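Researcher: Quick test of sequence recovery. Tokens follow.
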């Protein structure tokens, strides 16, 4: 469903461009330790509305998550919501008095429905019951929360809805009709989860988990510098089988690639993530394709690269694979002799895509990654020229595999740019801004915005 009122504009990072003689230092053990989480919602004021439903218990964790992300939260509850969670709980978590009644005399002018919405960056109703959705579409104003939604400045205070109800209620034509009307009236529906419900049934209608909602809210406020772009990302290691129980792989965790996929989606792109064998959760709104070997990844990439406008090859793809893979476990025979393995070189996925017609004609912008153990600048610069890609991102592999933090060196035809050590998600967002800036600077209309 559509999203309205996207705020802010993409700003190109003002970071120092380095000479090609500079190089990144090795990271110390101390530097590998995790730092504070980024305050993704710093300066944002969210009015969190609770309507009646068992999912109110999730609202407590959501409130806490919003505050940890840097937002201030004002809670407004309906009378029905108070049957599921107390105002004292929400007051303790938000650090603010909770409003429940339009006749609340704490407001000097007696207009809580006006005052509460004027300073809000967004009103988020979570949970939003079927009844409350109907109230919103009908323009009802007989209690504080619906009255406040009706009175909000619709052009600058977006209304975000997290539905929560039984699967039959959610599927009912009346509810679906109301959701369509709510979007037509300028609301943003964040979707629902699927799974076991409090009534004992299983299906659509669960309120999204607090972490999912938080990710959606952060994405909502992110400038859409990649709107209209179709981004293809590879992530993680590949696994090359020796026999049914052994194989060759590497230490890549996939965290950087997954962070990039999330950041690209936050920036408004349609994102497809091709992931090697990792156990990371899929970022919200990202289409994920799981693969195992380098040949699997090559097939998946080539089948989708022709539809992409940006390709970011983050995966640590195995350079070689066993020439043959045994159908049975290779056992020791007591002779003390090691098995003799022959290797053949895997196809170079990045180079193959970079040599495609789409990339050569500028319809596909390719970004490569280089995980090096030493001489990062020299090796990454050589790899960019060898792969024939406009942008190559280098990092020290042993210092980043499995870690939550990283440091990047961006190399293009103009020189190199250091992104100093930070969390992988922060770096991913900065990289996406850099990519968006370069895509725009190419002056190719088809890359600036795809229909």
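Model:
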């Amino acid at each position: 469903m559509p999203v309205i009122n996207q705020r802010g504009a993409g700003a190109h990072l003002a970071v120092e461009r380095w000479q090609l003689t500079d190089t990144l230092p090795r990271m110390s053990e101390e530097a590998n330790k995790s730092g504070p989480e980024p305050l993704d919602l710093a300066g944002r004021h969210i009015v969190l509305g609770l309507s009646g439903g068992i999912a109110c218990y999730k609202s407590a964790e959501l409130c806490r998550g919003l505050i940890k992300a840097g937002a201030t939260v004002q809670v407004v509850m309906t009378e029905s919501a108070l049957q599921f969670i107390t105002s004292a709980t929400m007051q303790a978590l938000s650090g603010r008095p909770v409003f429940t009644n339009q006749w609340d005399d704490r407001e000097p002018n007696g207009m809580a429905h006006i005052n509460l919405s004027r300073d809000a960056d967004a009103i988020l109703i979570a949970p939003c019951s079927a009844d409350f959705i109907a109230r919103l579409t009908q323009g009802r104003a007989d209690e504080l929360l619906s009255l406040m939604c009706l009175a909000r400045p619709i052009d600058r205070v977006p209304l975000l809805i997290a539905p929560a109800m039984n699967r039959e209620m959610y599927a009912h034509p009346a509810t679906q009709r109301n959701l369509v009307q709510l979007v037509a009236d300028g609301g943003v529906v964040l979707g629902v989860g699927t799974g076991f419900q409090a009534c004992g049934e299983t299906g659509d209608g669960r309120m999204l988990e607090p972490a999912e909602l938080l990710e959606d809210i952060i994405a909502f406020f992110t400038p859409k510098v990649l709107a209209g772009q179709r981004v293809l990302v590879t992530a993680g290691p590949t696994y090359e089988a020796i026999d049914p129980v052994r194989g060759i792989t590497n230490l890549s965790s996939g965290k950087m690639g997954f962070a990039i996929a999330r950041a690209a989606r936050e920036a408004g792109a349609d994102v497809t993530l091709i992931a090697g064998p990792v156990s990371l959760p899929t970022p919200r709104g990202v289409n994920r394709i799981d693969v195992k070997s380098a040949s699997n990844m090559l097939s998946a990439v080539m089948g989708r690269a022709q539809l992409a406008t940006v390709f970011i090859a983050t995966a640590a793809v195995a350079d070689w694979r066993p020439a043959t893979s045994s159908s049975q476990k290779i056992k020791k025979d007591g002779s003390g002799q090691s098995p003799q393995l022959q290797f053949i070189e895997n196809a170079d996925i990045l180079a193959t895509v970079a040599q495609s017609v789409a990339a050569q004609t500028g319809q596909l912008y390719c970004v490569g990654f280089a995980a090096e153990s030493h001489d990062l600048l020299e090796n990454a610069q050589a790899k960019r020229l060898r792969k024939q890609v406009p942008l190559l991102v280098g990092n020290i592999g042993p210092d980043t595999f499995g870690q939550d933090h990283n440091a990047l060196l961006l190399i293009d035809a103009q020189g190199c740019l250091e992104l100093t050590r930070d969390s992988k998600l922060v770096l991913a967002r900065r990289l996406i801004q850099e990519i968006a800036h370069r895509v725009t600077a190419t002056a190719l209309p088809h890359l600036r915005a795809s229909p």
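The mean pLDDT is 88.
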